[in-house]
Amino acid sequence: MKRFLIIPLLLAALPAPGTEFNVLRPQQSSITFVSKQMGVPVEGSFKKFTAQIAVNPAKPEAGTARIDIDLGSIDTGSAEADEEVAGKAWFDSKKYPAASFSSSGISSLDKGRYEVLGKMSIKGKTLDIKAPFTLKQEADTLIVEGQFPLNRLDYGIGSGVWSDPSVVADAVQIRFRFVVVAAKK
Amino acid sequence: MTNRYTRTAITLHWTIALLIFAAFPLGVYMHDLPLSPNKLQLYSYHKWIGVTIFLLAVLRMAWRITHRPPPLPGMQRWEKIAAHATHYLLYVLIFAIPLSGWLMSSAKGVQTVWFGVLPLPNLVSKSKELGELLKEVHESLNFLMLGLVFAHVGAALKHHFIERDDILARMIPSLKRTS
Q1: Please, which residues have CB within 8 angstroms of residue A72's CB and are 6 or more apart in sequence?
Q2: Is some CB atom of chain B closer than 8 A to the CB atom of A39?
Q3: Residue B71 belongs to what domain range?
Q4: Which of A 71-110 lie inside 8 A of B, CB atoms?
Q5: Contact state of A38 with B36 under an 8 Å Cβ cutoff
Q6: Residue A41 maps to which CATH number?
Q7: Spatial CA neighbour of B43 closest among A38, A90, A34
Q8: Residue B61 needs a FRET pair 20 to 30 A away by CA distance; which of A60, A134, B1, B67 works?
Q9: Can you list the positions of beta strands (E) in chain A?
């Protein structure tokens, strides 16, 4: 008898189908990147960002996302490089402290895979980008995960002596993972 | 029995020597540079040379084990012991120095990619403390090698120009005095 009670209780604990997930869990979310220096993949991350994501897994195409990244929170793996990339040739983070992404649409690729289109603004430049992602529901959370290459030179990131792509490659792989829960009613 | 090293042993010896003479000053020069594209390039070149030395050292060891080196004629017992000790330590260092550099790169979180193409596995995971420690190890081993190379070259020159024997001719056959 008990067993029959547990199932409806479990179901009640899960968000009802058609629920919108819209509250970020920053501790479980991450924005990391991999650049290539002399052919060597080097990983880094942004420690501070906000993400206003609203996705209904039953209708992901209607979802929206707005991400703001604090460029000063970059962790390149070395203090010397953190300082360097804050400079004028890289992010010029004094003048442009944040990068932002604003979605304009989401389309379905194939089963469980989607693509978000939107505008990426870095260092005073705004360009259209697209990024594939997956949606995975785990207990009461929705995990939005994906990666895409961003061409740093399009935004003037690493200009002047740093613009040689044989030293630091143009394409930087950006990886994002956002863990979102449904707002408590 | 011939009193010279084989052509293969001679080639390996001088190639490794040449690469060490490139990598050592490069290492001394580059480590204090401020971050720049040039620094990233020099670090990569230094690592590529190091990996090359390591691979040549493996070949050299295999050759050394299967080919007996020529004898050291007309030397005192202590001289032979000193010569052998120096040679063995230098053999150890041509493995240990590139290996310590590779370990240091791994600990510092920068993978070593040979010629920018062939990635070597990271031997340890990233750790600032371990990276600093391995830097000290890499540096100390290099200065030990510098001392040994001075002794090695000094002894070779002493044999050639002061004792006027054929010890150096074992590694440079064209210098042979007696037939």
Answers
A1: A48, A86, A93, A97
A2: yes
A3: 7-175
A4: 77-78, 80-81, 84
A5: no
A6: 2.40.128.110
A7: A38
A8: B1
A9: 21-24, 30-37, 40-46, 49-54, 64-70, 74-75, 98-110, 113-122, 125-138, 141-151, 171-182
Look at chain B and report how many structural domains it folds into.
Answer: 1
> Cα–Cα distance between A9 and A176 in angstroms, integer?
33
Q: What is the distance between the alpha carbons of residues A55 and A65, in angstroms, rounded to a whole number?
A: 8
Identify the closest residue of chain B to A82 by CA–CA distance: B35
Residue type at position A67: I
Give exposure, B23-61, as e/b (b: 16+ Cβ within 10 Å).
bbebbeebeeeeeebebbbbbbbbbbbbbbbbebbeebe
DSSP at B162: I
Contacts of A43 in chain B (CB under 8 A): 109
Q: Which ranges of A1-44 does DSSP label H, i.e. alpha helix?
A: 2-13
- Kindly state whether residue B99 falls inside one of the protein's structural domains: yes
pLDDT tens per residue across span A4-13? 555 555 555 5
- pTM (2 d.p.): 0.86
In a domain, B2, yes or no: no
The pLDDT value recorded for residue B41 is 96
- Write out chain A residues lying below 8 Å of B117, CB-based: 39
Domain that holds residue A74: 18-182
- Compare all CA atoms of chain A with the CA of B42 and give the residue at the minimum distance: A38
- Measuring CA to CA, which residue among B42, B61, B156, B137 is closest to residue B98? B137
What's the pLDDT score for residue A139?
86
SS3 assignment, position B82: helix
- Residue B120, in any domain of the structure: yes
User: Which residues of chain A, if any, have pLDDT below 70?
Assistant: 1-17, 185
Q: Is the ipTM of this complex over 0.90?
A: no
Domain for residue A10, yes or no? Answer: no
Domain contains B1:
no
User: Tens digit of pLDDT for each residue in A129-145?
Assistant: 999 999 999 889 999 99
Tell me the two tokens of residue B26.
């490069």
